[in-house]
Amino acid sequence: MPALDDSVQFVKGVGPKKAKLLEKLHIATLRDMLETYPRDYEDRSHPVRIADITEEGKYAVRAVVGVEPKVSRIRKGLTLVKCTVFDESGTLAVTYFNNPYAAAQLRVGQEYLFYGRVQGTGRARVLVSPQAEKMAGGEDSPGRIVPVYPLTAGLTQRDMARVAQAALAAVPGEWPDPLPMVLRARYRLPDAAEALGAIHAPRTLDDVTEARRRMVFEELFLLCCGLQQLKERRRGEDGIPFAPVDNGWAFWDALPFAPTGAQRRAIGEICADCASGRPMNRLVQGDVGAGKTVVAAALCALAARSGWQAAFMAPTEILAAQHAETLSALLGKLNLSVTLLTGSMTAAQRRAALAAIETGAAQVVVGTHALIQQSVTFHRLGAVIADEQHRFGVAQRAALAAKGHTPHTLVMSATPIPRTLALIMYGDLDVSVLDETPPGRRPVETYAVGKNMRKRITAFIDKQLEAGGQVYVVCPLVEEGETGLKSAEQHAKDLQAALPHRRVAVLHGRMKNADKERVMRAFAAWEYDVLVATTVIEVGVDVPNANLMVVEDADRFGLSQLHQLRGRVGRGARQSYCVFFGADKGETARARLKTLCRTNDGFEIARADLAQRGPGDFFGRRQHGLPALHVADLAADLALMQSAREEAEAILAADPGLAGYPELRARVQRMFAQRGDEAFN
């Protein structure tokens, strides 16, 4: 009898070679296989008659091979297998591409259940490269629901099914269930063993639906339990008590403008956290231009006021330099020193910066990942700020915090997400939302166009330049790659040829940091009229004079990323515009881009983006620091997520250590240990 922790290598038909391939899918044991859920299911349980296939699509067909399969070589390296199958209602052509073994597997006169895609209609119908299962004589219900697993080169669905069957056979009769029975009853969820059986060997698609609902609830419930425990543990730690502030705080007078109500609210929450005696762990999220830097400046001033240093980590050197300039202008009025530390500094600059940080002369330190290097020693680090949170792994944030003793931590994100989702995505943090735009920012006029507008848009670029503006042009590639996509380098050449009297520069991620910095600063100084770039400018230096953004192949980007790019313009007094090419790439692309034309509200755009693309693309696969979710979809399963969060809070309020739920406690620890969170190790 196999055990769940046995290696998949010992499953019949697997062996060492395929076991190594399975490891690429993070499957080393039978237990891993149980937790690797199918990405889809093929419904082969309802075969159709050949005569009833009237349109293209996927079908299960029970038919007999009527003609000996014929193998032909149509060109070097490409073979074609053709045969004809029939049932009582008609005949159907079957074709296999580059699979000469199909001819050997199919026997004339034998009945098979074929499953695959039918292309063409009428007499031109062809069943292309179908799966074929041999039928036993007189079998009444040949079809079944077939799981479709993620694969890697060298593995087949048959291999995955073989390992899944072995894993199910290893499930003990008394399979421990992490979900308390009261929750299973309240939400009418099957038990764990029943759900696993339905996931990997379902009888009907309804079985799959119920099992998935159970698995989603379990996964989100475990996640919420773990995040809630993390939050409570951090609240129990001793923090650095910063001196409380009153309405006469000099920081307010140092601002060159009146803060928005949302900024005042967020800063008030930060001040209260930092005076509480517990370490602050807060997320400030806000739309492009909502004024997050002012909130970060307030925390820096708060730390310095109490004799502590603040460290501000940005994802790029360009952005770090911009923040250093902005903070110097703001905090200089309070006689606070701001020091920049980046990887491209000269040895002498670096030595001076490191010395200032170690002695405490640097009260506010702004930098990139360079801040977390071993050579950086802080005198008294009391506050940590991570900008563009989704671009940092949780480990990088923790490494910076480790430079002090439980410093207050503020993470900032310009990726607006619905508050309910934010509470889950950043469930171990408190959340502040900047939902107001500072006065004076005019909405960016946005247009989605097709390539037939190319000449008019080029003329519009020239018109904006003639009026004294500057222009960003964003391309998805650096060099020519996929057919038809605009590369940054080629497009810069094309644009320079079309506008020979204009100064065109190019910027992309493969350039050296010093070169990127030089080009960006030159553009900000108006030494160039047009900057053709990849998304390296998504987070970049403010250029208030830039008032037009053109995005090539915009259908290749997520809506939230396009909204971030649009935020590069509209920062000055001039009316700004954004043009997205790609509206002629089909109805879906047109509808997506029209969302951006309709609204400048980042939260509404984020909701549309989540619904269309899912959180994996939205946040980056490993960037937000959550444990990996195998089955839950944070966008589609929002209602279940809310229920799971409420139930987790209720159970932990009564039993913070989960002493009465040993299996639940063990599963939460395992989930977060895989994330690498030391609090659960």
Provide a concise account of the structure shown.
The protein has 681 residues and is α/β, with parallel strands linked by helices. Helix content is 38%, strand content 18%. It has a seven-stranded parallel beta sheet, sandwiched between helices. Strands 16-21-20-17-19-18 form a six-stranded parallel beta sheet, with helices on both faces.
Explain the overall architecture.
Helix 7 crosses helix 22. It contains 23 helices and 21 strands. The protein folds into 4 domains: 98 residues, Beta Barrel (OB fold (Dihydrolipoamide Acetyltransferase, E2P)), CATH 2.40.50; 110 residues, no CATH class; 185 residues, Rossmann fold; 155 residues, Rossmann fold. With 681 residues, it is an alpha/beta fold. About 2% of the residues have low confidence.
Proportion of residues in β-strands: 15-25%
- The beta-strand count equals 21
Number of helices: 23
How many angstroms separate the termini? 31 Å
Main sheet properties: 7 strands, parallel
Based on the structure, what is the oligomeric state of the protein chains? single chain
Low-confidence stretches: 614-624
In CATH, the topology of the largest domain is named Rossmann fold
Q: How many domains make up the coordinates?
A: 4
The CATH C-level name of the largest domain is Alpha Beta
Share of residues in helices = 25-40%
The largest beta-sheet arranges its strands as 11-12-10-13-14-9-15
Shape: globular
Q: Decide which structural class fits the backbone.
A: alpha/beta
CATH architecture of the largest domain: 3-Layer(aba) Sandwich
CATH homology superfamily of the largest domain: P-loop containing nucleotide triphosphate hydrolases
Rounded to an integer, what's the Rg over CA atoms? 30 Å
> Which whole number gives the mean pLDDT?
86
